[in-house]
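Deliverable D4.2, example record:
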Amino acid sequence: MAVDAVTWAEFEQADEALAKRVMARIEGHRHVIMATLRADGSPRVSGMEAPIRSGHLWLGMTPGSRKAVDLGRDPRFSLHSAPDAETLAKGDARIDGIAQHADASQQQVFVAGHRYSIDDPSIMVLYVAMITRVVLVRVSGDSLLIERWTPATGRDTQRIQ
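Output generated by the structure prediction step:
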């Protein structure tokens, strides 16, 4: 079964307003939480940086790290932002997707734009996130507002009183 998956740029082009809100949540803190699948199928959560730039959501990690091994075996992942506050006024974002190994040209783009100097890119395993689902949950007035987006269906908004 094929899964529809898009780059960050394609998501942003399809739903710019939601992409801006989700980006603000993902980049609102230096770290996000990434869930991967262990060999036995159980979940593993790890903290990491996940910058969004040059049209991609990047997943960089140390070779041999548990999350790198997990993604090498099963490329499915989920990223979760840190909540902005107890009120969730800005929201709580999740991005699900498939981690795709960055090719040499993508790795050069990542290294050139990184906040720290990376002299030897071989010190990391670098993936480009191919997005399959985005969810932003926030409190709006006296309701819970849930915005879901997939490449196949676009945005679906649900308001829970």
